[in-house]
Write a structure and sequence with these properties.
Length: about 100
């Protein structure tokens, strides 16, 4: 799935600056939102909790990085140290089929 397809799926949830304005309640849109946010995480980079919060806040207008971190982890976009001291992009990323996005 391309970045343009994800942005199209999130129409109505992105502001003029490309930030998520809300975290969608419906599962399918939520998965697109997580894919969108995960695309900003650099592969092979470890982030502290603070750095991950800053990254997520940079790309959202609603400031709830704890929920977003948890959702990204729970849906296998991110992995983390057991104590939450470091986060990184999980490889491979979940597929559209695994996320229930394939029609």
């Amino acid at each position: 799935m391309t970045a343009a397809e994800i942005e199209t799926a999130l129409k109505g949830f992105l502001d003029a600056e490309g930030r998520l304005t809300a975290f969608p309640a419906k599962r399918k849109k939520k998965m697109y939102a997580l894919m969108y946010l995960a695309a900003f995480v650099e592969p092979d980079k470890r982030y502290t909790e603070r750095e991950m919060n800053e990254l997520l806040c940079l790309h959202t207008a609603f400031r709830d990085p704890a929920t977003l971190r948890r959702e990204l982890y729970d849906h296998h976009f991110l992995d983390r140290e057991r104590d939450g001291s470091a986060y990184w992009l999980e490889q491979p990323a979940p597929s559209a089929e695994q996320l229930g996005l394939e029609e």
